[in-house]
Amino acid sequence: MLRPAFALLTLAAALAGGPALAQTAPAPAAAPHAPPPAPPYGRPITLAEARTAAAAAEAEARKQGWSMVIVVVEPSGALVLSEKMDGAQYGSNDVARRKAETSANFRRPTAYFQEAVKGGTLNSIFTGALAIDGGELLIVDGKIAGAIGVSGGSGVQDGQVARVAAAALK
């Protein structure tokens, strides 16, 4: 009794799977573009330079009416300066620090990782990179002197403020 039923089930499975076996595999996805070469690490940012970047960030945030946390780190990710504007949310302290550390450690803005995740590449977040706009490299004399992380608004707002700060050192 079981043998004819088993034979029928086996035959049905083989026939149902036949069209699936005949399908062609989808073409492999195009390889993602390699990131541009990252600038080399340089000397650590000075406190005066960190203050210049933070002041530019704060001025941009105030101009826009945003309360933010601004963190500046050395190339190693060591903290140089941290400020929390009045009214900024408490959770932004850690987020701003992690954005700055991500930029310094991986030698690229956090927006790079955000775009990679949007494109389906999740490798960066498994390495500990924070994939949210708002972390930017601070370049002095063509080399990475540190990074700035900004948090408190949307990713777009954080990124805008961080880029203004980075431009203040160029």
Helices and strands: which structural class?
alpha+beta
Q: Spans with pLDDT under 50 lasting ≥5 residues?
A: 6-31
Total helical segments: 6
| Helix-strand topology string | HHEEHHHEEH
Number of domains as seen in the coordinates: 1
Report the average pLDDT across residues.
86
Shape: globular
CATH topology name: Beta-Lactamase
Q: What is the CATH level 1 assignment? A: Alpha Beta
Strand order of the largest sheet: 2-1-4-3
Strand content: 15-25%
**What kind of sheet is the major sheet?**
4 strands, antiparallel
* Helix percent band: 40-55%
Record the SSE blueprint.
Elements: H1 2-22, H2 47-64, E1 69-73, E2 79-84, H3 92-106, H4 110-118, H5 123-126, E3 135-140, E4 143-151, H6 155-167
Antiparallel strand pairs: 1-2, 1-4, 3-4
